[in-house]
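Appendix C: a fully annotated inverse folding record. The material below is reproduced so that readers can follow the format used throughout the book. The structure is listed first as tokens, followed by the designed sequence.
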């Protein structure tokens, strides 16, 4: 097992970092934040043009045949820069599933456009009454000839108001056990009967509650076999559960180090010279390092043909809870000034401390709550019963 990057991957990381430094200006970041929408078409297509969209994909599918470490440093840099990538990430996630189990016709229709940034895909898993129990979905799809009629609602369909499609989990056999009566569909969001209503998160991001009222889709939009939706969706959940949020800790660490080096204490000395300041920054640095190592262990496992079934959730639950701890610790350190709003000109580090503390709380819910992650670790890692 190794965690160090080789020379080529370091050079690739530096090139990504340089590109992001040029295109993610303070003005563009403020515009994206105030819109509440973590997506920007020009930015996404700029990544495509530079080869930074899906570098580990085969060239025939629009990739560059790069290895998993190049893919990992790309993700780390995008997250560390707080790039508007969520819709691009979900698009790439669903495209990888279509590549694996989609029909030839669906591959022809979707993959090319998705890899060019011309097609975007949101996720339609969670429902208002189901919480993290995704398999308890009640949105129904009833077959009528060669069409399916969909009725129901989904919660937290982020970017569902601007995406071209939603990757939708629907119940197709109500008489079967909840994990066995589900089917996945790729639903065009210009379909009659679809509606998206805004819901705003604590961090200021817009997500959506979406409604499906007699939405009709052809069977050609089904992804995978009928009633095999849980297995198909598992391909995407595996990717989500193996996500790590450590780069946000790296961003927090960068800002608090900058604050400590440039801010004076009441006695006129640099904040960085204070024992308590250095102790707290050291704690953040340790959380950052552990989060990075846990995530890179997952990358190493994938590289060696293993599935990080428990290790992915370990990375996710540790890094998100560490981000919560670190952001709260830093706000306490900086004091009342840390509560000044994001992009407020007089706020320390332009209000990043306030925003990161709000943002951190949501990360323990995204892609499965900490409780769900711990259950997966217990069952798949420790062999405990459900």
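Designed amino acids, in order:
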């Amino acid at each position: 097992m190794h965690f160090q990057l080789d020379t080529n991957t370091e050079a690739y990381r530096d090139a990504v970092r340089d590109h992001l430094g040029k295109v993610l200006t303070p003005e563009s970041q403020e515009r994206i934040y105030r819109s509440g929408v973590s997506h920007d078409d020009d930015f996404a297509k700029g990544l495509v043009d530079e080869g930074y969209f899906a570098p580990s994909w085969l060239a025939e599918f629009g990739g560059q045949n790069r290895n998993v470490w190049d893919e990992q440093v790309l993700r780390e840099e995008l997250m560390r820069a707080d790039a508007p990538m969520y819709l691009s990430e979900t698009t790439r996630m669903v495209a990888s599933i279509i590549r694996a189990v989609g029909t030839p016709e669906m591959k022809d229709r979707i993959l090319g456009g998705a890899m060019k940034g011309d097609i975007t895909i949101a996720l339609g898993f969670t429902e208002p009454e189901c919480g993290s129990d995704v398999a308890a979905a009640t949105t129904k799809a009833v077959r009528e000839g060669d069409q399916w009629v969909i009725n129901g609602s989904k919660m937290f369909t982020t970017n569902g108001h601007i995406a071209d499609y939603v990757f939708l989990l629907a119940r197709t056999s109500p008489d079967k056990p909840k994990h066995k009566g589900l089917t996945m569909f790729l639903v065009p969001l210009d379909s009659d009967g679809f509606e998206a209503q805004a819901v705003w998160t604590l961090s200021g991001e817009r997500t959506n509650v979406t409604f499906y009222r007699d939405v009709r889709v052809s069977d050609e939009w089904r992804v995978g076999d009928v009633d095999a939706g849980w297995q198909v969706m598992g391909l995407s959940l595996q990717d989500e559960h193996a996500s790590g949020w450590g780069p946000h800790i790296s961003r927090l660490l960068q800002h608090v180090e900058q604050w400590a080096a440039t801010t004076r204490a009441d006695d006129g000395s640099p904040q960085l010279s204070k024992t308590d300041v250095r102790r707290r920054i050291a704690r953040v640095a340790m959380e950052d390092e552990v989060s990075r190592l846990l995530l890179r262990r997952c990358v190493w496992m994938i590289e060696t043909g293993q599935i990080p079934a428990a290790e992915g959730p370990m990375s996710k639950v540790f890094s998100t809870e560490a981000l919560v701890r670190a952001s709260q610790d830093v706000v306490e350190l900086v004091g009342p000034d840390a509560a000044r709003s994001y992009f407020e000109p007089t706020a320390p580090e332009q209000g990043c401390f306030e925003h990161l503390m709000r943002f951190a709380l949501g990360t323990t819910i995204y892609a499965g709550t900490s409780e769900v992650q711990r259950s997966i670790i217990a069952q798949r890692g420790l062999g405990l019963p459900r």
